[in-house]
Amino acid sequence: MLKRLAAVAACLSVLALAGCGNESDGGDTASDATETTDSPAATVTCEYPEDGQEAAREVDPPPADAESEGTVTATMTISFGDIGLTLDRADAPCTVNSFVSLAEQGFYDDTPCPRIGDQDGFGILQCGDPTGTSSGGPGYSFGDELTGDETYPAGTLAMANAGADTNGSQFFLVFRDSQFPPSYTTFGTIDEAGLKVIDAIAAEGNDNSNPAGGGAPNKPVTIEKVTIG
């Protein structure tokens, strides 16, 4: 919908994506997903409990069984052009499962990307909240899928969150090598053409309204549609 700089930049990166995504009490997490062996395809069992917040758009939660091998391609058509994505099921099966489910239900269609940052150690475009407030979500949450070794170079697709195990619908696209702590689940990559599209957005500037970095794009950015496959 979130690798070292000097101390000041490091502090900024810790705060950079806090307050994004859905708050919850944690509870069951996707990191507890268990392998199932009674299916030809490798799968894990994911949990998507309600998070106590009203969904920004009415959607069904994803199916519990998620494939845990291979990749999925997606195209995010935005007002500036197309961004090609490759989603990695092996890296984050429950996250990919959720993203695909939301995309197929039209959750991301005609929604804004309300934040962009273009500074040393912080180059991201944040999307995934239909309300455009950076606080909306799908009405459910799910756990982090982290190894502790995550880095965020240009071309990374990662989840935004409001703390541990509060993933929902919001995600960010990294278009500059960024210095974040390994607290944001990575679940795919962005193609070269997509990075150029985000560069064009960044070139328009932003209002620097977010104290943790970046702000609203000077030229509004809208996701017109996310197509899977």
From TrEMBL:
Region (Disordered): 23-42, 49-70
Keyword Secreted: no
InterPro entries associated with the record: Cyclophilin-like_dom_sf (IPR029000), Cyclophilin-type_PPIase_dom (IPR002130), Cyclophilin_A-like (IPR044666)
Signal peptide start and end residues: 1-18
GO molecular function: peptidyl-prolyl cis-trans isomerase activity
Keyword Isomerase belongs to the record: yes
Cited Pfam families: Pro_isomerase
Enzyme class: isomerase
Residue span(s) of domain PPIase cyclophilin-type: 81-228
EC id: 5.2.1.8
Keywords: Isomerase, Rotamase, Signal
Catalysis: reaction(s): [protein]-peptidylproline (omega=180) = [protein]-peptidylproline (omega=0)
CDD domains: cyclophilin (cd00317)
General function of this protein: PPIases accelerate the folding of proteins. It catalyzes the cis-trans isomerization of proline imidic peptide bonds in oligopeptides.
Family named by the database record: Belongs to the cyclophilin-type PPIase family.
Name of the protein in question: Peptidyl-prolyl cis-trans isomerase
